[in-house]
Write a sequence for this structure.
């Protein structure tokens, strides 16, 4: 009996004691509840509510309400956190069971940390020149090329949208702090750490965009970073409940501006004037008065039409964007999946693009120390444009096709002749040309897997492998052409031909990185990074051509009677080691140092290894003791940096000789023998192009973060730039060897100002940025006369500066011609008046020669700026974004001859009797008047209304019953108007476009909605 009692005590006494220990704890558990609302009093769903220092937490429901069970304690703090809102903490009371909280939006939530190379840093601790874009400002703007969304948003970043042609990535040019090389000046774009194209990422997938502008922030990327670095971080899943989001927009586009062409009878008048000025048999081609009268009264439109070809080939075009995403996860696993669709008609007929893209980001944590993740993205895009490209369409309208030709005859055939019997030859119909399409199909896939092990706190061992695949298939079929007259007779020209191209690009990169962040005595903070990277790039290009097809309906290469093929393959590898150290003392004194060692197969072995160091320092003056008690100055930081970068984007084999195979290179007796010949000479001594940048900066934040200012001054010098210097033709090679022969300097300053505030239900924000950069060639060894028609590369001037004769209007009297310098050509009254400004000894010599040519314009904007204004009242939001450039020139020449259409400017030509006050050159001396000169250079500065948007977000209490977390509708317009001194054309066009043949930019009017479930 005693033994059983003893056993009972041993078995049940611990349970009884445990029970008595638990019961008091159960008795001390309390349940608290409340509601979280925003500044407008609307409930906030998805807010994380947690007990500080524990894993105990919950999430607010659709109405913003929450409930949380927790042990009763004397000291407990409840934390409320939500993306885009300031984190709020509340100390709990033993006697209070309900806690209602109001959370306020704050831009700081996104600005607390900035994405930098291989990680993130607190903005307050940055010592380099890094700028970020607030993604919510750009994600709803309907564009086919994401690159254009950066235009005007960042100081020091010049973005030029040269055209709105759908699917043309190269039509958007990005330059960071000027141009530092004569080759490829595009910045390095990294998407989640992998090199890619900004245009391939949907704006809705982007979480953050950071731009590394100086060497201190970009040196860790070594030879890939000389032109600056753009870091794109895509969205990932969160621990919150699953969230389904949709964004969509529909828009209408039209050209920002099209040249105004005169009516056909005015055109015929100018045509006759030019023929009369030319003399000889040219007047025999004139249109008679009866013909011109028929053009005016429209009595014979089949033979004497009044066609405005610009209006015929352009249209109002539709654009639509749709985006669907789902995010979610739990404590250990998270995901984000999205799919997007974009369809854009071109404003020029015969152009369009369509794209489908997807993205999947996921990561899972194991054992609380191992994170395994993956990124996958892909797209399929089709791009269509007319045969010969859009430039060919413009060329027909401007130089060849007359307005007297009808679009179509009454018999339905395309018009290609008018009624002037002196023109028996046909004229290409540009609208018909838009019906001959070329098709390009582009497939892209990006994949990445990564492993992150954290054996001890803040020590991360990371390894990743990424693979990229891109395939572009191009096909163009040119049929035989039947050129019809109004009576149905026709002439057949051309041969049916097919051209097919395929470009295959592959890249893989493996990176292994160790980072460790730690502090000593709370005052000394350290960040260490060491890493290794191996990268491979490969391209394959193949082309096949077939001619003399027996039919226009079968487009298969084996139907061609004559075929030819061409192809090439390129490969390159890059092996790198890099490291970084950060140090901060009380977040007051900051220091960072980077070093990268690169070894590239693109450089000869003797110079293949390059080292790229940088160092930067900062002083957070606002953290000093003597400023601790003031409440006006939040941040006052001085920064300074120095570093070196490299450029390996100089081709795949710039140091190697290349050969041409399989051509008739040799004669043996009376026969031509197929053989090999040297195509390019080699220079085994070339080395890296190197860019050295010095930067000083100032960061100021005032008035409780309402006002901010950032200023930077930089000096960027690129040396050992690779050029192909001229060689004698007797050497017998097509291409000269590369040599390190040039030096370029970019110097300038950047300023960003911001103000954001709230007054009850009203919010307001203003952000302005402006930058100035002076691009200058310091030296060009061996290429002092590097002239290319309109441009020159000359020491002391910008890259590609405009080069020509200086003019002083037109000759308006015979006395002016008689006293003019001796020159080439035979100037007449009404011709361009060239000035004698130099001679053999550098002084005017009474003659117009090549020595009188000089720099007459700057092709790269010296000043860029942007202003973003935002306002909100209750559920309404409004934004206006203005963007502009200054101190930039463009060639604006309406070619001074009457071939195709004639513009209103040409109608204002000089004529002794009809228009003696005309400002356009007299017709009939085109070779003389079209010479490169300041007469055709115009100031292309502009201010553009880039985007204006009005939105309305429905109250959350209206949506909660439908289980909708958020619903916003908006209307917007892009490129609504442009203020500029340029008439008849968009000032934002290619610097080398001397004939105004650029596909124009577009203005867009759109409506859209965003919905979250």
């Amino acid at each position: 009996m005693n033994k059983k009692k003893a056993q009972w005590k041993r078995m049940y006494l611990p349970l009884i004691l445990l029970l008595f220990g638990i019961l008091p704890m159960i008795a001390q558990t309390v349940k608290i509840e409340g509601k979280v609302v925003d500044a407008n009093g609307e409930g906030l769903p998805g807010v994380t509510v947690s007990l500080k220092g524990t894993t105990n937490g919950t999430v607010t429901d659709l109405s913003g309400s929450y409930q949380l069970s927790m042990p009763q304690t004397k000291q407990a703090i409840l934390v409320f956190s939500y993306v885009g809102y300031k984190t709020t903490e509340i100390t709990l009371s033993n006697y209070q069971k309900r806690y209602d909280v109001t959370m306020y939006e704050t831009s700081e939530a996104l600005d607390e940390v900035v994405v930098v190379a291989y990680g993130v840093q607190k903005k307050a601790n940055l010592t380099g020149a890094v700028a970020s874009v607030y993604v919510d400002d750009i994600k709803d703007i309907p564009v086919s090329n994401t690159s254009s969304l950066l235009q005007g948003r960042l100081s020091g970043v010049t973005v030029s949208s040269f055209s709105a042609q759908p699917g043309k990535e190269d039509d958007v040019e990005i330059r960071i702090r000027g141009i530092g090389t004569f080759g490829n000046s595009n910045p390095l774009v990294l998407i989640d750490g992998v090199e890619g194209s900004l245009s391939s990422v949907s704006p809705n997938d982007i979480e953050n965009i950071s731009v590394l502008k100086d060497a201190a922030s970009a040196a860790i990327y070594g030879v890939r970073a000389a032109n600056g670095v753009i870091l794109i971080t895509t969205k990932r899943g969160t621990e919150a409940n699953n969230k389904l989001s949709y964004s969509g927009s529909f828009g209408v586009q039209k050209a920002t501006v099209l040249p105004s062409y005169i009516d056909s009878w005015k055109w015929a008048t100018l045509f006759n004037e030019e023929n009369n000025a030319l003399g000889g048999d040219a007047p025999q081609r004139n249109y008679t008065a009866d013909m011109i009268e028929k053009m005016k009264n429209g009595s014979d439109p089949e033979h004497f039409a009044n066609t405005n070809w610009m209006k015929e080939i352009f249209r109002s075009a539709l654009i639509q964007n749709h985006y669907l995403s789902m995010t979610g996860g739990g404590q250990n696993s998270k995901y984000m999946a999205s799919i997007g669709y974009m369809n854009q008609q071109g404003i020029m007929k015969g152009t369009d693009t369509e794209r489908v893209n997807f993205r999947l980001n996921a990561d899972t944590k194991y054992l609380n120390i191992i994170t395994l993740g993956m990124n996958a993205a892909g797209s399929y895009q089709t791009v269509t444009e007319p045969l010969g490209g859009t430039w060919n369409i413009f060329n027909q309208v401007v130089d060849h096709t007359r307005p007297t030709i009808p679009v179509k005859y009454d018999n339905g055939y395309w018009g290609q002749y008018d009624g002037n019997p002196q023109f028996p030859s046909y004229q290409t119909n540009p609208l018909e040309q838009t019906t001959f399409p070329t098709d390009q199909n582009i497939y892209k896939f990006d994949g990445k897997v990564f492993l992150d092990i954290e054996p001890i706190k803040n020590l991360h061992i990371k390894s990743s492998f990424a693979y990229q695949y891109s395939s572009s298939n191009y096909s163009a079929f040119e049929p035989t052409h039947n050129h019809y007259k109004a009576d149905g007779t026709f002439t057949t020209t051309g041969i049916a031909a097919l051209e097919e191209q395929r470009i295959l690009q592959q890249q893989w990169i493996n990176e292994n990185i160790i980072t460790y962040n730690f502090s000593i005595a709370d005052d000394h903070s350290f960040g260490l990074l060491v890493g290794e990277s191996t990268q491979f790039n490969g391209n394959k290009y193949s082309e096949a051509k077939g001619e003399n097809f027996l039919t226009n309906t079968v487009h298969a290469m084996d139907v061609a009677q004559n075929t030819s093929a061409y192809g090439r393959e390129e490969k390159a590898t890059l092996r790198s080691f890099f490291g970084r150290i950060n140090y901060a003392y009380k977040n007051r004194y900051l220091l960072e140092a980077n070093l990268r060692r690169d070894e590239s197969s693109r450089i000869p072995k003797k110079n293949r290894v390059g080292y790229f160091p940088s160092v930067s320092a900062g002083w957070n003056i606002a953290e000093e003791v003597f400023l601790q008690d003031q409440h006006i100055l939040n941040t006052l930081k001085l920064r300074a940096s120095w570093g070196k970068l490299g450029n390996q984007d100089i081709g795949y084999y710039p140091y190697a000789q290349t050969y041409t195979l399989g051509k008739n290179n040799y004669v043996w007796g009376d026969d031509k023998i197929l053989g090999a010949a040297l195509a390019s000479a080699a220079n085994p001594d070339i080395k890296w192009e190197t860019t050295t940048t010095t930067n000083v900066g100032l960061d100021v934040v005032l008035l409780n973060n309402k006002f901010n200012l950032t200023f930077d001054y930089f000096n960027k010098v690129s040396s050992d730039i690779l050029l192909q210097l001229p060689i004698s033709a007797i050497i017998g090679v097509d291409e000269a060897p590369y040599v390190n022969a040039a030096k370029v300097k970019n110097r300038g300053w950047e300023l960003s100002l911001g103000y954001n505030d709230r007054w009850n239900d009203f919010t307001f924000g203003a952000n302005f940025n402006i930058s100035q950069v002076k691009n200058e060639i310091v030296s060009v060894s061996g290429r002092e006369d590097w002239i290319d028609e309109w441009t020159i590369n000359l020491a002391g001037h910008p890259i590609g500066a405009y080069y020509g004769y200086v003019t002083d209007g037109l000759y308006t009297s015979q006395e002016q011609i008689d006293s003019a310098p001796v020159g080439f050509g035979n100037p007449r009254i009404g011709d361009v008046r060239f000035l004698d400004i130099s001679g053999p000894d550098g002084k005017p010599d009474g003659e117009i020669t090549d020595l009188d040519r000089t720099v007459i314009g700057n092709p790269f904007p010296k000043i860029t700026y942007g202003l973003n204004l935002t306002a909100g009242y209750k559920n309404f939001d409004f934004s206006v974004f203005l963007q502009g450039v200054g101190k930039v020139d463009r060639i604006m020449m309406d070619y001074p001859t009457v071939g195709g259409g004639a513009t209103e400017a040409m109608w204002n030509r000089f004529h002794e009797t009809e228009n003696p006050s005309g400002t356009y050159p007299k017709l009939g001396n085109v070779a003389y008047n079209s010479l490169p000169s300041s007469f055709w250079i115009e100031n292309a500065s502009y201010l553009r209304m880039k985007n204006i948007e009005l939105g309305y977000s429905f109250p959350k209490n209206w949506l909660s019953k439908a289980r909708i977390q958020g619903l916003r509708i908006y209307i917007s317009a892009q490129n609504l108007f442009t203020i500029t001194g340029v008439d008849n054309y968009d000032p934002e066009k290619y610097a080398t476009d001397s004939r105004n043949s650029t596909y124009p930019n577009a203005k867009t009017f759109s409506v859209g909605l965003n919905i979250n479930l």
About this structure: Residues 3-27, 107-111 have pLDDT under 50 and may be disordered. The two ends are 68 Å apart (CA to CA). Residues 2-27 form the longest helix (26 residues). Residues 5 and 431 are 107 Å apart (CA to CA).
